[in-house]
Amino acid sequence: MELGGAKLREWLINRRNELDLTQAEVAQEANIKRSTYSMIELGERNASVSNAKKIANALGFDWTIFFDDECHETCNFENSIDVS
């Protein structure tokens, strides 16, 4: 996953924690393996478009954040998400 450094990984962890979810719960909601989600969250694995969409749906944000390089460096991610 091209995360643009630790900023997106930290945001992803914070988002999950704000929703009071475990990695296992996010993975179950996203219909992916917990180990896959964990590796994505830790930056050890790239998210496919399919997995990015599933994770974003489970956590309530726009999946393109995973792939928006410009936003990774300049955006405040909390203001970039669409949770409607």
Query: What's the average pLDDT?
Result: 81
**Percent range for β-strand residues:** under 5%
Termini separation comes to 25 Å
Number of domains: 1
CATH class: Mainly Alpha
What's the arrangement of secondary structure elements?
Blueprint: H1 6-18, H2 23-30, H3 34-41, H4 49-59, H5 69-74, H6 77-80
Helix pairs in contact: 2-3, 2-4
Write up this protein.
The protein has 84 residues and is mainly α. It has a single domain, classed as lambda repressor-like DNA-binding domains (434 Repressor (Amino-terminal Domain), Orthogonal Bundle). 60% of the residues lie in helices and 0% in strands. The chain has six helices and no strands. It has helices spanning 6-18, 23-30, 34-41, 49-59, 69-74, 77-80. Helix 2 (23-30) crosses helix 3 (34-41) and helix 2 crosses helix 4. The longest helix is centred in the N-terminal third of the chain and has 13 residues, at 6-18. The radius of gyration is 11 Å and the shape is globular. The model is unreliable at 70-75 and 77-84 (pLDDT under 50).
